[in-house]
Specification:
Chain B: This is Polynucleotide kinase-phosphatase. Chain B: One of its GO terms (cellular component) is cytoplasm. The complex is a heterodimer of chains A (about 475) and B (about 850). Chain A has 16 helices and 14 strands. Chain A is of the alpha/beta class and about 475 residues long. In chain A, the strands form two sheets. Chain A has a seven-stranded antiparallel β-sheet. A seven-stranded mixed β-sheet of chain A has the order 10-9-8-11-12-14-13, sandwiched between helices. In chain A, α3 runs antiparallel to α7 and α8 runs parallel beside α10. Chain A is elongated, with a radius of gyration of 29 Å. About 5% of the residues of chain A have low confidence. By secondary structure, chain B is an alpha/beta fold. Chain B has six domains: about 170 residues, P-loop containing nucleotide triphosphate hydrolases (Rossmann fold, 3-Layer(aba) Sandwich); about 240 residues, 4-Layer Sandwich (Purple Acid Phosphatase, chain A, domain 2), CATH 3.60.21; about 100 residues, no CATH class; about 110 residues, Dna Ligase, domain 1; about 110 residues, 2-Layer Sandwich (D-amino Acid Aminotransferase, Chain A, domain 1); about 60 residues. Chain B contains 27 helices and 33 strands. Chain B starts with a strand and ends in an 8-residue tail after the last helix. At the A-B interface, β3, β4, α2, β5 and β7 of A face α16, α20, α21, α24 and α25 of B.
Chain lengths: ~475, ~850
């Protein structure tokens, strides 16, 4: 909530003219979230500092966007202290003409690069500060702010000093764009006019910034339609030297030119499940743990499946599946029913089907609850066939990005070796009157097997559970 | 006078042409809500009661409503012409679907009377031709009504007969709700007279004997009634002796007997029907050969007259030979009788050629206790409030009785194997610990015994997600802690919550004596601990779980903690003679569970404030030194800096490093339940005394809870309580919880204020309302907080919790406990201000 701008360009007090703020007065500007004060803690010939201090009104705090990731986040948050989009908005309002590069009293100075020093005591996202400001010609000093107690390490804030020789307007525009980018979010709804603001403020520097993709993506709150527009507009920027630079957020996502093995595995897994299902000759099938409906669309597209039930415990996943299915033709859609259920409970609505799929589901259930799942699926629902896929933990050593001993997904309660999966599946098959065969999914490694394992269970007729 | 006797649960079809006076008859003899008139339904679906084109839709709706009423056990009268056979067939179908008797009341009045009446009506014209057609149809159908399925048919042929008719209600044979027992419910006797006599004697019955010493009746000095579950006959050595004794008891009114499949078959045989003589019928017939035919005739009549099942004790007890599912209780139809006699079968046969039985009891969710026989089991075992008391006496097992309402099981062993079983004794039906999703989803109304609580479908859905994905095994999750409302908002300068308000809340609710308990700042923890590792269906020491049912630890720390609690609770296990304990507690430090939250959310706020505010202050100071007028801003910044520092101190006070059990502290404050008992009715003195003993037994792990008792009507006492709180919170305490001293459940079950009210410390609230909440303007704004919703939620969750404990104590089936636990969790997903 504090930002200081210092210059040593003599006469330094001309900073007051550029900012249109008299150094000997206190200026206040009202923003939608509180009051911004502009004053000069130093105003001497050789050194002059303008301070912008935003006081966030407590009653406004709870109404801001963000902070919903924990129950009290609207009341206990860093907005009153950290330099965020709130400060960027105050900056634009308090220094509006300077931001545009306009100065009635010192037009030439406004067009001149002068030595500047920007101080921000609590700037979030400090590992990124150097990456974002460095390429713009700033000399960046970051003093990380430790958490209390200090044994918890550094916080995401840094006390930051930027030194460089810039036109004041450029410096202000850098700050205006990069403060919200560093914070990773905005306090207000991001609409299409944000694209214009970004293009205006980014003129002359954003198009060629090496982290342009990251900046546009974060500034525009990850809204793909907006980032596409912004990138098109930026590509028209005359300063752009290399139109073939890779698009894609270099921090948040892997570069686009390396194919994502996880995505490819997902497709192969889906194909393997569909092949297994086709082998069973089923026409009425259950997709248990359907999530957002990755498999449902494929099942709906295949007319051999006359009735498909997608079941999941998560209401939000089912809502996502519902949205995904909206794109289907009425007749395809009519073959699919979505139900909320939990796989550790018996559910009479799931009985009497030809086959059931549990694609990457069992590993999301606590191991101690698997007997209940087995009873619900194989004992109670009792479909003619069951297809189960789950990761093969042995293969994890082939994922360089996966630290040893960690699982592929934070919600995985376990990941099985091939022997463990076979052991479980064989026991389940025996207890409930099924036979089981195993199929590898994905490229098989001679040493550690395939990344995904699949078991196909077939009910033995005439055997009671 | 014609007396029209209608079963009190029946579908009554009025039959008669237009103008025969059906509506008048219905109005005269039935309540308006019992009568479904086709005219009214036509009006409902088509705005015109004469619109014949709407008939199909109108009858569709009428049949649907009739079905809903019958399902709920309500007498229903259908006022339509019903002269056409297909119309009546539909009504018979609806009646059968709900296993009630269809009754026809025919108004067969002279055509001239009907014609005059319709012509006198201004709103409707029915031509003579139509009337004649209706009358022809009626005449044609009249004789076949019984064949169509109407169990009773009454025909009234003149206006005089109609006027003189009286409708009376008859109770169904199976309805003996007025009998409240106590009962001794006896399993399948199968001719084992000697064992029956010794069982009755052991139960305190006095047996009456005739001159030859044969048992011919029995009575109980305490006025108990015996109820036989059927299968008195066949296979055993003395079917005639058993029948003589039971018939004598029934005749004297000291016993009831329902019909078993063996009585049914015997009666058919004695009636001369063609039945295969096997499964022990041959023994009975051999024994009958030596008897006087008059005696056999008496046995025949007795067996023939037996009712399929009885509903007893105000509807709380049902006895049927092979059991009875809820929909069939108190109903009469062929399929109900068949269920009572044979149970439900899957349609398959087993390797012994006997029908495979469907385990209906596993699905049973009814309110009535069902006691039955038919399938011999080695030991009677409760399953979803049903009990099979056939312990295979004739096969050399034992003869068993259930004492009701005591629920004691008494058995005598068979003297020998009287008849070789075809198949070995089946294992008793097991409680299916696989829960059914239908028990915990949808909009549900739960009768807690302290008032009904309704939970919405959406909230239930949210709870299901947590239960199935994150919660501990349902068998280890018998209870969840209810939320708690804060005290009314204080107006004391600088405070949002202040003790005097809590005391005043209780004084107003009529609670004089309250206990103030120190509120430990950790995480709410429920401790379910077994005396040994076999105390629960899930092997292990029990469970340590959070207020949403999640396990605290995944690394074995929970088990280690439970074993320490087990050791500390040795005396308590002894005192309460229990194999397990359910404790309500707080687990400290806060960071043990919330470490990530504190590091990710709380600490960064302090870090940002700690970096920004001092820098802002020095910048302002420099400007002030230049003569700028920034004094007011400086004061505000200084106040904020102080608040932020205080805030940082608060969250750090409740965080400290732990390693396994090292550093962890458990502060129990209530013993909620033990085997067979809910302790919610014990006062907090008892509770805290038990908690103290645990703390004394393991002071390193277990913390005691400081407390003070306050009289809310005594100003000195209130002052003492207030000072106590001020000292507690000044020393860094979170605050206190004030509870009625007499305990968690109110003695009268009534709504006597909240079960607990929290009063949180001024500094603590910084981590709830934000560091700066004490700024006077902010505080003034926050005082306008609404507590009604939170209080209502706290009350609902509280009574649900009490119900869970009661059900647990009563040994209720798992689903009955689990549905309440799911409801508590569902309440928790209702939106409510998280700061309260």
């Amino acid at each position: 909530m504090l930002l200081t701008i210092t210059t040593t360009h003599a006469p330094a007090t001309d900073l007051g003219y550029l900012l249109v703020k008299h150094p000997d007065r206190v200026h206040t500007v009202t923003t939608s979230v509180g009051t911004a004060h502009v004053f000069f803690p130093a105003a001497e010939e050789h050194r002059c500092t303008a301070a912008l201090l935003l006081e966030v009104a407590p009653e406004k705090l709870a109404g801001l966007r963000g902070g919903d990731h924990f129950a009290l986040g609207r009341y206990v948050n860093d907005r009153p202290y950290a330099a965020t989009s709130l400060l960027a908005v105050a900056l634009a309002k308090a220094y509006s003409s300077a931001l545009r590069g306009v100065s009635k009293d010192r037009p030439e100075l406004a067009a001149t690069a002068i030595p500047l020093e920007i101080g921000v005591p609590a700037l979030p996202g400090h590992p990124l500060v150097e990456r974002l400001f460095g390429p713009l010609g700033w000399d960046v000093t970051v003093r990380p702010v430790p958490l209390a107690p200090e044994s918890w390490g550094d916080s995401r804030y840094g006390t930051v000093t930027l030194r460089g020789t810039h036109r004041l307007a450029d410096a202000l525009n850098h700050l205006y764009v990069l403060l919200p980018v560093l914070d990773g979010g905005k306090h207000y709804w991001v609409g299409p006019d944000e694209v214009d603001k970004l293009i205006r403020a980014g003129t002359g520097w954003l198009a060629t910034h090496p982290d342009r993709a990251l900046i546009t993506d974060r500034y525009l709150a990850h809204q793909r339609a907006f980032t596409r527009t912004a990138n098109r507009l930026l590509d028209d920027d005359p300063d752009l030297l290399d139109p073939d630079r890779p698009a894609g957020d270099q921090l948040d996502a892997p570069p686009a030119d390396t194919p994502d093995p996880v995505v490819r595995l997902g497709e192969r897994r889906r194909d393997a499940v569909l092949a297994a299902l086709a082998d069973t000759g089923a026409s009425r099938v259950l997709d248990l743990g359907c999530g957002s409906g990755v498999l449902l669309g494929a099942l709906a597209a295949d007319p051999r499946y006359t009735e498909v039930v997608g079941a999941d415990v998560s209401a939000s996943a089912l809502a996502a599946a519902e949205r995904r299915l909206e794109r289907l033709a009425d007749r395809q859609r009519a073959r699919i029913t979505l139900r909320q259920t939990a796989l550790t409970y018996a559910d009479a609505r799931l009985t009497g089907y030809d086959a059931a799929v549990l694609m990457e589901v069992v590993e999301h259930v606590d191991e101690s609850r698997l007997p209940a799942l087995a009873r619900a699926v194989f004992g109670s629902a009792r479909p003619g066939a069951v297809v189960v896929t789950t990761p093969n933990v042995e293969y994890n050593v082939r994922y360089p990005a996966l630290a040893a001993g960690t699982m592929r997904h934070t919600d995985h309660r376990f990941e099985w070796t091939r022997a463990e999966f076979a052991d479980w599946a064989t026991r389940v098959a025996e207890s409930y009157g099924y036979t089981v065969v195993f199929r590898p999914v994905g490229d098989e490694d001679p040493e550690v097997g395939a990344p995904t394992q699949l078991a196909l269970f077939t009910r033995v007729e005439g055997v009671a559970a | 006078m014609t007396e029209i006797a209608v079963p009190d649960l029946a579908l009554v079809a009025l039959v008669g042409v237009s103008g025969s006076g059906k509506s008048t008859f219905a109005r005269t003899h039935f309540r308006p809500t019992q009568v479904l008139s086709s005219d009214a339904f036509r009006a409902m679906v088509a705005d015109d009661e004469n619109d014949q084109s709407a008939s199909a839709a109108a009858f569709d709706a009428l049949h649907h409503v009739a079905g809903l009423r019958l399902r709920a056990g309500r007498l229903t009268v259908v006022d339509a012409t019903n002269t056409q056979r297909y119309a009546r067939a539909e009504l018979v179908r609806v009646a059968r679907e709900h296993d009630v008797l269809p009754v026809a009341i025919v108004l067969d009045l002279p055509e001239q009377v009907c014609a005059e009446r319709t012509e006198a009506r201004s709103d409707r014209h029915v031509s003579r031709r139509v009337l004649r057609r209706q009358r022809d149809e009626l005449r044609r159908g009249l004789r076949g009504l019984r064949r169509e399925g109407f169990r009773k048919v009454y025909v009234l042929s003149t206006p005089e007969e109609v006027d003189a008719a009286v409708v009376t209600y008859e109770k169904q044979y199976n309805d003996r709700r007025e009998l409240t027992g106590p009962f001794d419910i006896v399993g399948d006797v199968h001719g084992c007279r000697a064992e029956l006599e010794s069982l009755l004697t052991g139960l305190g019955w006095r047996i009456d004997r005739d001159a030859d010493g044969a048992a011919v009746g029995a009575s109980h000095p305490a006025g108990r009634t015996a109820v036989f579950v059927g299968d008195l006959v066949d296979r055993g050595p003395d079917t005639p002796g058993v029948l003589r004794l039971v018939m004598g008891m029934v005749a004297a009114g000291t016993a009831l007997s329902v019909c078993g499949n063996h009585e049914q078959k015997l009666a058919r045989k004695l009636a001369g029907r063609d039945v295969t003589v096997r499964h022990g019928l041959e023994t009975t017939l051999a024994q009958f050969e030596k008897l006087d035919p008059v005696a056999v005739q008496g046995f025949h009549e007795f067996c023939d007259g037996l009712v399929s099942h009885y509903v007893l004790d105000g509807g709380r007890l049902v006895v049927a030979h092979a059991g009875l599912k809820e929909e069939y209780q108190g109903r009469s139809s062929a399929r109900v009788r068949s269920f009572c006699l044979y149970g439900e079968t899957t349609g398959e046969t087993d390797e012994y050629g006997l029908p495979v039985r469907y385990p209906w009891a596993a699905d049973y969710r009814g309110d009535a206790t069902v006691v039955y026989g038919h399938t011999p089991v080695p030991e009677p075992e409760w399953l979803n409030d049903t009990l099979c008391v056939d312990t295979g006496c004739v096969f050399g097992g034992s003869l068993t009785a259930l004492r009701y309402p005591e629920r004691e099981i008494v058995s005598v062993p068979a003297e020998r194997v009287w008849y070789e079983p075809v198949r070995p004794l089946a294992p008793p039906p097991r409680e299916d610990d696989l829960l059914d999703v239908a028990d915990v989803t949808g909009r549900r109304r739960i009768d807690t015994g302290y008032g009904a609580v309704t939970v919405g479908a959406e909230e239930s859905a949210a709870a299901l997600e947590v239960l199935s994905r994150f919660a501990v095994d349902p068998r280890l999750l018998p209870w969840l802690p209810p939320t708690m409302a804060p005290c009314s908002t204080s107006t004391v300068d600088g405070y949002l919550e202040y003790p005097t308000e809590a005391f005043e809340d209780y004084r107003k609710a009529g609670v004089t004596r309250v206990v103030c308990e120190e509120k430990h700042m950790g995480s709410r923890a429920v401790v379910l601990v077994g005396r040994d590792d076999d105390a629960f269906p899930v092997p292990g020491p029990g469970a340590l779980y959070t207020r949403t049912g999640r396990s605290f630890f995944t690394d074995g720390t929970g088990e280690a903690l439970l074993r320490r609690v087990r050791a500390a609770a040795a005396g308590l296990f002894e005192e309460l003679s229990t194999r397990w304990l359910l404790l309500d507690a707080e687990l400290l430090p806060w960071s043990a569970k919330a470490g990530q939250l504190i590091r990710d959310e709380y600490a960064p706020v302090a870090a940002a404030a700690g970096a920004a505010l001092p820098a802002a202050l020095s910048t302002v100071d420099a400007a002030v030194a230049r003569g700028l007028d920034l004094g007011a801003l400086r004061d505000r910044l200084a106040a904020r800096a102080a608040s932020a520092a205080a805030y940082a101190e608060v969250y750090q006070r409740y965080s400290w490093p732990t390693d396994g059990l090292t550093g962890l502290r458990l502060a129990p404050f209530a013993v909620l339940a033990s085997e067979g008992a809910s302790h919610a009715g014990r006062d907090h003195g008892w509770q805290l005394d038990r908690a103290d003993r645990l703390a004394a037994a393991d002071p390193e792990l277990i913390a005691s809870t400081r407390r003070i008792v306050v009289d809310t009507t005594d100003p000195d006492s209130v002052r003492a309580g207030t000072d106590w709180w001020l000292a507690l919170t000044a020393a860094g305490g979170e605050g206190m919880v004030v509870k009625p001293y007499h305990g968690l459940s109110t003695p009268d079950g009534g709504r006597q204020g909240q079960p607990g009210i929290k009063c949180r410390g001024r500094e603590y609230l910084r981590i709830i309302y934000g560091p700066d909440y004490t700024e006077p303007a902010t505080l003034a704004r926050l005082r306008d907080r609404k507590l009604g919703r939170k209080r209502s939620l706290a009350w609902r969750e509280h009574v649900l919790g009490l119900a869970a404990l009661d059900r647990l104590a009563a040994g209720a089936p798992l689903y009955r406990v689990h549905e309440v636990v799911a409801a508590i969790l569902a309440c928790e997903s209702e939106p409510v201000d998280p700061r309260l």
